[in-house]
Amino acid sequence: MDICSIKGCNNGRKYANGWCSTHYIRWWKYGDVTFTKRDTSPRRVPVNPVDLAYLAGLIDGEGYIGTSCSYKDSSYITLKVTMCDKEVIDWMVATLGGGIYIKNPSQSHHRIGYTWSSSNKNYLRELLGAVLPYMKLESKRNLIHDFLLS
Ligand SMILES: [Zn+2]
Predict the structure, then answer these.
(1) C-alpha span between 28 and 45 (Å, rounded)
(2) Which residue, 8, 40, 99, 107, has most beta carbons within 10 Å?
């Protein structure tokens, strides 16, 4: 049987790139087959208005906000900012904590995307509450507003 080429992996059958599906998905999502856990370092909320305004611009421009507030107990939110320019995401990590997720392009003409993300409800409540006054886009402001009230 064709087995995964990662040393010590007993997951069995090859899926793609010579790896099992677990290792392949890890590589695809995080750009690193050895990635084992999400960064759990403490997240911070900036207090400097210039940082908050800059962040608001990033979220307005490149931010993805996913929410599901149909049931209060299971309301879910995720915030992602993806950029091709790693320096911007480095700034977010330095300012907010957390880590960088690297997405390898699915097609050769696509560029590598660097992502900062969080799905921590309590943290995002604090962070988005601080950023909201600086945001300009109505649609995103409304999303955040609804989340803060949920
Ligand atoms: Zn494997």
Answers:
(1) 30
(2) 99
- Domain 49-149: what homologous superfamily? Homing endonucleases (3.10.28.10)
Give the containing element (helix H, strand E) for 81: strand 76-83
Interval between CA 95 and ligand 1 midpoint (Å):
34
Domain ranges in the chain are 1-36, 49-149
* CA gap 22, 112 in Å, rounded: 21
- pLDDT tens for 124-147 read 999 999 999 999 999 999 999 988
At 31, the pLDDT band (50, 70, 90 cuts) reads low
Q: Ligand 1 center to residue 39 CA distance, Å?
A: 21
How many Å lie between the centroid of ligand 1 and the Cα of residue 25? 10
> How much distance in Å is there from the Cα of 84 to the middle of ligand 1?
29
